[in-house]
Amino acid sequence: MRINKYLADKKISTRRGADELIKNKKVFINGKLAELGSQVNETDKIEVRGVKKVEYKYFAYNKPIGIETGSPQEDLFPLGRLDKNSHGLLILTNDGRITDQLLNPKYFHEKEYVVKTSNKLRSNFKQKMEAGVDIEGYQTKPCKVKIINENTFRVILTEGKKHQIRRMCSALFQEISDLKRERIMNIKLGNLKPNATREIKGEELAIFLKSVLS
């Protein structure tokens, strides 16, 4: 196994970050400096020296309508985006290890939204949304839809194409008046007020990290 993959698998760093550690002469294999592309196995002694351990932080943030996706704390970055006219849950962190696992489309992680439309939902809307919708040549993956009333529905997606829900609704002749994200995997927005944050910790954090790092 290549040393950068080993360090990534052990959740010590991303592969790119591991390459930087190796370039900076921080990684040792059996007491000798590692080189880019070095091969290792489980019996080798791997050390990362002179690197201060990062204290990872995780927060739920309720992004208000009318602002661009960002973070109210300089040392944290958002995982994913919500467009300016959408609101609801973002996860803020300084943990670069989980970025790819959460955002890469090859991984399946549930995200739940409540959506209001300015025109009445068509009778076949649920069926068509759940089956997948052609948005400019891309067929979306099947999703789960629950109709709340004639102008409101709840949808659970496992992918996150840019403006996906808005584009899906537009393709089905529905105009969105409000879009709110309420859940990412096991992290729920709950009663968090707009522009407020709360720390993700304890069992909630343990379940989340197990899902994205396993």
UniProtKB/TrEMBL annotation:
<dbReference type="GO" id="GO:0003723">
    <property type="term" value="F:RNA binding"/>
</dbReference>
<dbReference type="GO" id="GO:0000455">
    <property type="term" value="P:enzyme-directed rRNA pseudouridine synthesis"/>
</dbReference>
<feature type="domain" description="RNA-binding S4">
    <location>
        <begin position="1"/>
        <end position="57"/>
    </location>
</feature>
<keyword id="KW-0413">Isomerase</keyword>
<dbReference type="InterPro" id="IPR042092">
    <property type="entry name" value="PsdUridine_s_RsuA/RluB/E/F_cat"/>
</dbReference>
<dbReference type="InterPro" id="IPR006145">
    <property type="entry name" value="PsdUridine_synth_RsuA/RluA"/>
</dbReference>
<dbReference type="Pfam" id="PF00849">
    <property type="entry name" value="PseudoU_synth_2"/>
</dbReference>
<dbReference type="InterPro" id="IPR002942">
    <property type="entry name" value="S4_RNA-bd"/>
</dbReference>
<dbReference type="InterPro" id="IPR050343">
    <property type="entry name" value="RsuA_PseudoU_synthase"/>
</dbReference>
<comment type="similarity">
    <text>Belongs to the pseudouridine synthase RsuA family.</text>
</comment>
<keyword id="KW-0694">RNA-binding</keyword>
<dbReference type="InterPro" id="IPR018496">
    <property type="entry name" value="PsdUridine_synth_RsuA/RluB_CS"/>
</dbReference>
<dbReference type="InterPro" id="IPR036986">
    <property type="entry name" value="S4_RNA-bd_sf"/>
</dbReference>
<dbReference type="InterPro" id="IPR000748">
    <property type="entry name" value="PsdUridine_synth_RsuA/RluB/E/F"/>
</dbReference>
<dbReference type="Pfam" id="PF01479">
    <property type="entry name" value="S4"/>
</dbReference>
<dbReference type="InterPro" id="IPR020094">
    <property type="entry name" value="TruA/RsuA/RluB/E/F_N"/>
</dbReference>
<dbReference type="GO" id="GO:0120159">
    <property type="term" value="F:rRNA pseudouridine synthase activity"/>
</dbReference>
<protein>
    <recommendedName>
        <fullName>Pseudouridine synthase</fullName>
        <ecNumber>5.4.99.-</ecNumber>
    </recommendedName>
</protein>
<dbReference type="InterPro" id="IPR020103">
    <property type="entry name" value="PsdUridine_synth_cat_dom_sf"/>
</dbReference>
